[in-house]
Inverse folding.
């Protein structure tokens, strides 16, 4: 055994060193116990947090489901028709932007005359 | 006695009683170590299985069509609870059920356990767990929700109580949609409270499944079909919308809606005149007829063979191919089939996809029925040319019309949005043939039997179909039961949608032009507005008021 180690063991065998050793050991035991208790306490906390997450996630799912149901075409159509009095649009409402729509053929002779006169005036303008 | 002997004796007297203890200790520590360790471990730890939710099903725009949510099942252990009546009041408050219902469910349950409620939410399950009622257990499960109600249910199908798909996409893609369970190890304290939880076996959540279906299109198709189904008291109906350029199915509606049956793929019908496109396309492609040549339609009555007469619904003289389609002449189609011969007719019918499965991702798909070459006698060929003696599915028919719309390419109908390019199956006929046929089908809507499918300002190509149904009692063609159908595509100048409408056994009216074509027009009108498609017949556009 090396001389220095022998001296260390000898010095520790003294009464003051022995007390220090006991205190150190006790502190170690206390630390272990504290660690165990703290781990258990944190375990409970984690589990409680997990329950809260689960509960919130459950509520979120329910809210999302309600939202999806409310946005379903059948629900939207029903509300649009009954509450807002809307009706399905006809393709006649479609206008191509940047391209003027062709004029509706005039129904009467007078209107047709007015319409052709207007076209001629427009042609003169350009 | 020497000191040594006394020392040995006293040691023996002290140690001898410890011998049984040592033996016992050795037995516990060495021989029964493993089993006892397991037993001790079971006291404080327990395996817990968590149900991984089934994958969501989304439409092409990411809207939820089906979603799984966790639920909890409350059950009673009948070995521990012999009589539930004393507990019924307390359980009624916790389970939000009448006490009598709880007693009824307990009595109706199995021999060992009885399910009291299977759709508890998390808060309810926790309240029940906190109540600590001996003999009442809670089990986690999942429930499938369809937020759009019955929308697309024939397509989506249904999930059984065990969480497995039993019909529709839920069945055909069950393994893709199902989640595998996750296994946890729980460490509990003396009171049973969980102290720690560690994941033993992980399982990833399955990715959401995106369909090519458009939720809005599906609604439009279902609503229009249901209205017509009710108005004409039809026994069944199908409406389908397909993108002719990719084969993607945008809507697949059925009437009445049942999550257990999808008539669009599982059922067949005799198509009648909508099948005339086969003879027409084959004749054009093979040069058997051109736009100017005519066929004499025998003024409405033609005896094709002794004892077999074909009738047209209106007497017609000589008709061009466009005329045959516009007036829906059976005699003209039969004569066209005769000119083609059975081999060419059969080849083109198969090329259009009739008589074979389309391969769509839905269960129970039918291949339909197409007479083979040996069975194509003169009479059978004539009948097949105008759509009798053949049985097709709605999916086959819409796919065939899409081939005309896109210039001759047959695509496999696509239902799952998987990022893969469209599956092109084959070229049915040349692009020029299909362009000419498409113009003739436009004539059907502009001047022929399909005028009620027309929408002012838009070029629409399509064909009506009215076919007698076989009477199940007499096994002969009925004189009062029909299938009414219309199939077409629009805008014909640059097709975006192929739409099919079939109504079985309508009452009051039965012609495809009266029953199915207006439904086609109603669907088409709404699609045009929804997607803001500009008119492709500019000369008929009305001026803004």
């Amino acid at each position: 055994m090396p001389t220095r180690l022998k001296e260390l063991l000898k010095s520790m065998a003294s009464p003051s060193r022995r007390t220090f050793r006991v205190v150190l050991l006790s502190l170690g035991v206390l630390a272990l116990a504290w660690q165990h208790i703290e781990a258990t306490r944190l375990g409970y906390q984690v589990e409680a947090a997990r329950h809260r997450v689960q509960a919130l996630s459950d509520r979120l799912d329910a809210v999302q489901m309600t939202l999806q149901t409310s946005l379903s075409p059948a629900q939207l159509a029903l509300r649009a028709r009954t509450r807002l009095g809307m009706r399905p649009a006809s393709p006649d409402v479609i206008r191509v932007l940047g391209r003027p729509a062709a004029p509706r053929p005039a129904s009467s002779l007078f209107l047709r005359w007015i319409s052709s006169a207007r076209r001629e005036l427009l042609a003169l303008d350009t | 006695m020497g000191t040594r002997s006394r020392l040995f004796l006293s040691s023996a007297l002290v140690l001898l009683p410890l011998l049984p203890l040592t033996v016992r200790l050795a037995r516990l520590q060495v021989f029964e170590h493993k089993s006892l360790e397991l037993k001790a471990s079971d006291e404080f730890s327990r395996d817990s299985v968590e149900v991984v939710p089934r994958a969501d099903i989304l439409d092409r725009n990411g809207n939820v069509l089906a979603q799984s949510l966790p639920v909890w099942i409350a059950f009673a252990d009948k070995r521990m609870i012999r009589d539930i009546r004393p507990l019924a009041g307390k359980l009624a408050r916790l389970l939000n059920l009448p006490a009598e219902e709880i007693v009824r469910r307990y009595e109706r349950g199995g021999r060992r356990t009885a399910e009291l409620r299977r759709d508890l939410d998390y808060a309810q399950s926790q309240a029940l767990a906190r109540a600590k009622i001996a003999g009442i257990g809670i089990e986690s499960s999942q429930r499938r929700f369809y937020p759009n109600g019955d929308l697309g249910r024939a397509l989506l199908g249904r999930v059984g109580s065990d969480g497995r798909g039993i019909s529709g996409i839920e069945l055909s893609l069950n393994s893709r949609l199902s989640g595998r369970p996750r296994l946890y190890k729980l460490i509990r304290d003396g009171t049973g409270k969980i102290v720690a939880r560690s994941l033993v076996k992980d399982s990833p959540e399955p990715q959401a499944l995106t369909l090519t279906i458009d939720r809005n299109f599906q609604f439009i198709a279902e609503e229009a079909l249901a209205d017509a189904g009710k108005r004409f008291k039809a026994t069944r109906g199908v409406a389908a919308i397909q993108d002719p350029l990719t084969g993607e199915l945008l809507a697949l509606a059925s009437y009445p809606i049942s999550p257990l049956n999808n008539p669009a793929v599982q059922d067949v019908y005799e198509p009648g005149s909508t099948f005339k496109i086969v003879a027409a396309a084959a004749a054009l492609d093979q040069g058997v007829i051109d736009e100017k040549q005519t066929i004499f339609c025998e003024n409405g009555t033609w005896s094709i063979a002794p004892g077999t007469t074909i009738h047209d619904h209106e007497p017609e003289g000589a008709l061009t191919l466009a005329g045959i389609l516009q007036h829906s002449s059976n005699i003209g189609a039969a004569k066209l089939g005769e000119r083609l011969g059975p081999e060419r007719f059969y080849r083109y019918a198969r090329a259009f996809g009739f008589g074979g499965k389309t391969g769509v991702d839905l269960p129970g798909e039918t291949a339909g029925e197409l007479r083979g070459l040996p069975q194509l006698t003169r009479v059978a060929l004539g009948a097949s040319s105008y759509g009798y003696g053949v049985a097709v599915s709605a999916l086959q028919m819409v796919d065939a019309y899409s081939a005309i719309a896109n210039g001759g390419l047959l695509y496999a109908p696509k239902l799952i949005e998987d990022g893969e390019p469209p599956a092109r199956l084959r070229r049915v006929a040349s692009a020029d043939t299909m362009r000419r046929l498409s113009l003739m089908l436009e004539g059907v809507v502009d001047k022929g039997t399909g005028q009620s499918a027309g929408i002012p300002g838009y070029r629409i190509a399509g064909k009506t179909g009215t076919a007698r149904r076989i009477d199940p009692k007499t096994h002969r063609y009925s004189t009062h039961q029909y299938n009414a159908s219309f199939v077409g595509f629009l805008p014909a100048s640059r097709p975006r949608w192929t739409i099919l409408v079939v109504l079985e056994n309508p009452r009051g009216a039965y012609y495809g032009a009266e029953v199915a074509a207006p439904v086609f027009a109603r669907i088409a009108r709404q699609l045009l507005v929804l997607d803001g498609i500009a008119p492709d017949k500019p000369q008929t556009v009305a001026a803004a008021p």
